[in-house]
Amino acid sequence: LNSDDIVLTGAFAVVAKAFHENPEAALVSGQVRLINEEGKSIGTLRSYFTSWEELVTNPGNSVRQVSTFFKRSLFDEFGMVDETLYIAMDNELLVRFTKEYTPLIIEDALIAFRKHHGAKTDQQLLLGYKETDKLRLKYINSQKLKSGYRQRSAANWLSLFELGDRSRSKRFSCLLRAVIMKPVVLFSRRFWSALRSYFSKS
């Protein structure tokens, strides 16, 4: 749990009940309430799981680490957190866990995730996606899945470029990452439209 996040009232009882009623489950993942610096609710972060293939080709987090509880035995089976990663260590851990164990997704909100500009994940978002690119391709053996991940990652980098809420140099690095992940993005209308918009605001 991040130091500025909150466990919602009754969350532990809900999780204990879920494990008790589903003894075969190794992971239980609930929903996340998004709050601002003052603790006001500003939205939700969905936790969902359809398949490991979908999760591993998604540059985002479909299973929310902050609201995911798992059995201690998984550390014995798969090892601990990869401390060489700075942002995506939780992402990498869940890729390992969910390849063998399907998480039980529940609709209860368990955690309030605080969003503010001082947060590590907010400040280092681009680094986190770079780490995710590396680790996801490490775990994907199928060329079809690798191609699928590269396509989704390139689209994600283009979206980050289009947001326009970062410095011009950081935005341009997002555009370069999109090309690195999927060079054929150069031939897309979206790429050139985004590039024209970038230079028209120079």
Q: Would you summarize the structure shown here?
A:
The protein is of the alpha+beta class and 202 residues long. It contains nine helices and five strands; from the N terminus they run βαββαβααβααααα.
Low-confidence stretches: none
Overall helicity: 40-55%
The radius of gyration over CA amounts to 18 Å
Mean pLDDT: 92
How does this structure look, described?
- The protein has 202 residues and is an alpha+beta fold.
- 50% of the residues lie in helices and 15% in strands.
- It contains nine helices and five strands; from the N terminus they run βαββαβααβααααα.
- The protein has helices at residues 11-21, 52-56, 73-78, 89-100, 120-123, 125-139, 143-163, 168-181, 189-200, and strands at 6-7, 27-35, 41-45, 68-70, 104-114.
- Strands 1, 2, 3, 4 and 5 form a five-stranded mixed β-sheet that branches.
- Strand 2 and strand 3 form a beta hairpin.
- Helix 4 (89-100) packs parallel to helix 6 (125-139) and helix 7 (143-163) runs antiparallel to helix 8.
- The longest helix is centred in the last third of the chain and has 21 residues, at 143-163.
- The N and C termini lie far apart (41 Å).
- The model has no long low-confidence stretch (mean pLDDT 92).
